[in-house]
Amino acid sequence: MERPYQTIANAIAALGREHAGAGRQLSELLSLHECVTTLNHAKTLDQLLEVFVFTVLGENPSRSAAVFLKAEQGWYRAFYKGAAKKNGDYSCLAKMELLHLQREIISLDSCSAQIEAILSDCNLDQAGFSRFVPLVNQKKLVGLLALGQAMIEIDLEAKNQWLLSLADLFGLIFGSIMDNQSLESVNRVLEQRVFQLQTIRDATDIFIRCHNQESVFRALSQNLMGQFFISRSGFVEQDEQRVIYKTGCRASEIQNFFQKEEHRQFLTKLPAYSLARLDFSPRFAYVMKLETLEAGTFIFMLGPRLNGKLIEADDENLVIALARQASSALDRLALEEQRVENERMLKELELARGIQQQLLPETEPDIEGYEVTAEMRPFNQVGGDFFDWFEVAETGNWGLCLADVSGKSLPASMIMTTTQASLRALSTHTPASVSDIVKRLNAQLCLAIPSNRFVTMFFGILNPQSHKLTYINAGHNPPFLLKSNGQVRQLREGGMVLGMFASAPYHVGEVELEKGDELLIYTDGISELVDSRDEEYGDDRVLDCFVKHAGQQPLSAEKDMLFNHAIQFSGNQLVDDMTVVLIRRKI
Fold it and tell me: Rounded to an integer, what distance in angstroms lies between the CA atom of residue 328 and that of residue 503?
């Protein structure tokens, strides 16, 4: 026989996990509590029906409501509010008994043709009713609640679980009356339900104040041990089999239980929130699995009752309801921990972004006869791309670099910082060639960065006097050199990515820049953008945009056009850091 307390067990099952609706859940729980308390004073069936209907309308304001009950002479309308006073023939509702209806809310808009026909035969659709809730007792239909259109805009889906819980309770009550039980005996049962509801309300207050996992398990343990006179309990994280909380027993007793293969298999097959008897354990009598959305899966174990009695089925529902509330509290704590961690990470990323921006050149280089501009737009707070320019030691030449570290966010940013510092140290302290600098940098990165990371780089040294650019392309997108006569050349000479093989060979390329020539160096964060059809932006579109706008405006405006065209293509959906370096010979 399904007990009234299933009301609360079902309510907690569906509502207890949704943290955003915690206030609404508590309000509905209080409403159930007040309803059960009021029922204690009901002396007649009419009073019971009045409490039922007005409780429903309090949470679901509707234009009309009615309750239909089954009696020996057949089905009849037992109570109505706002519906037509004229009674009707409701004998056709007997057909619904054959459908074996369970916990559900029937809507005229979506019910089966068979149910729609029965409701139509009783003219319930014409009476303005649109939703129906079966009242079931021991899997038998004993009544039907009918509701009209809502009077105000409410979230009906959010109210469904509460309405079903109330229907469970009144299904039991009306079924008991049909079985000729006195209202006094029903009220005695309800008094016990009031006590259990108060227990849940008190537990709710305690769980809200819990500040860590151990305090949640302590609160649940103390509540259950006090309710059922149990002297020991333990809580274990299932995957790691780590004892989180225990009382009245040693941790070794709990660990010994998990060491047996048959016990582990038993727990694996155990459904969540099902209180199971442990006939094979001398120290523990009950076990339950708690599955949470955010905090993991836990096993809690209870010793036998000191009075030698078993936990009855009705009391099991109380255990389950409290366990679900504990799970909800664990999820809340896990989400709060994630929020704090996310805030910490955000602060670290903001700090790293500030450091990264400080490492990038603050001003454009003053290279006689040349205009240079660059910009890096990170995919996250920080990125793995970087550009740099500097005077090469004792030569009067300028080093120009654009690099892309594999990966994203903070790890890539850290490697970027290492790469940039090493490159500057190798280039600005003693005179060196492009080849020497890149080979030494590669050897250093092989030692300094993880084996699953690498760096693509275009590095060149520009001689402003001869206008020759010697370069190495280490696995990077080949830059486009647009000559003043309209010809395009890609700078491919070089070798493999940096940081993979210390002895990797690199070949040096050389080009001469003439007046009006422009060089575009960019990262694949631009070329690998995709549109809504998953088509890649590609190097060809980068080149088309470059050729179209080159030489017609300042480099900074040209740079913005390159970014904007690519971002517009992707619908503003970035996939990686994006960096552009533009160099133009002016004279």
Answer: 57
Asked if residue 401 lies in contact with residue 459, where contact means CB atoms within 8 angstroms, the answer is yes
Q: What is the token pair recorded at 330?
A: 């664990």
Give CA–CA dist 96/579, Å, rounded: 69
The percentage of the chain sitting over the pLDDT mark of 90, rounded to a whole number, equals 33
Identity of residue 482: L
312 in Cβ contact with 1 (< 8 Å): no
**Residue 500, C-beta contacts closer than 8 angstroms, at least 6 positions apart:** 446, 454
Q: Are 469 and 459 in contact (CB under 8 A)?
A: no
Treating both helix axes as pointing N-terminal to C-terminal, what angle do 183-209 and 213-228 enclose, rounded to 10 degrees? 150
Where do the DSSP E strands lie in 30-84?
65-71, 74-81
221-230, 374-383, 456-465: least confident range: 374-383
Question: Looking at the predicted structure, is the pLDDT value of residue 373 above 90?
Answer: yes
CA-to-CA dists, residue 473 to 217, 405, 476, angstroms: 60, 14, 6
Instruction: Give mean pLDDT, residues 397-411.
Output: 86
Which ranges of 429-459 does DSSP label H, i.e. alpha helix? 434-448
The C-alpha angle with vertex 406 and arms to 339 and 457, in degrees rounded to 5, equals 140
Task: Give the Cα separation of 467 and 347 in Å (integer).
Answer: 45
Residue with structure tokens 């079903």? 164
Q: Quick check: pTM over 0.70?
A: no
CB proximity list for 206: less than 8 A, separation 6 or greater: 219, 223
CA dist 115 and 133 (Å) reads 12
Tokens at 331, concatenated: 């999820």
Give me the phi and psi of 36, to 5 degrees please. -65, -40
**pLDDT band at residue 321, thresholds of 50, 70 and 90?**
confident
Q: Which of 304, 289, 183, 280 is nearest to 237 (CA)?
A: 289
Instruction: Dump pLDDT digits (tens) for 11-69.
Output: 334 434 443 344 455 555 566 666 666 666 667 788 888 888 888 888 888 888 999 99
What pLDDT score was predicted for residue 4?
Answer: 36
Identify the structural domains of the chain with CATH numbers, from first to last. 42-181 (3.30.450.40), 209-334 (3.30.450.40), 362-585 (3.60.40.10)
